[in-house]
Amino acid sequence: MTFVTFHMTLLLAVLAPVVEGQQQARYTEVPRDTTVVEGENVTLNCSVENITNDTSVKWFGPPNYHFRTEGRNSGHPRYTIVGDPSEDEFNLHITSVSKADGGQFRCWVREVRGDPAEATLTVKDRVTSAVSNVHAFSSKCLIILQCFVLKFL
Question: Hey, where are the domains in the chain?
């Protein structure tokens, strides 16, 4: 019995690093801090390699890392997962970004060791501008007045 236990322990010790090295999931692309104007669309990238069919890629976001997606499914109409499934891309696409979307996002895979894949989404106010030039002529000088009008939507 000791002989069998010793060989089994030795076999597991030799094979464990090989199996673990082949199966260990890791991020190949992580989301980056991004600034977007309110009302525009944005995509936060996240790619993971060495995942299995049982692996779940999840996105969490504001407020307070609220659950947003799992796998390629989202319960939110403005949040979708895009990217090439064969390349293990799980990019979070947000349409018509609102101020409430601003904050910390996390792409999370339980099997990945180390730091989580996080990024901050900053949402800027939407601004429109108009420029008007007024020219005044006299016999001795030319006066140009330029007026900028900024309006927050």
Answer: 25-125
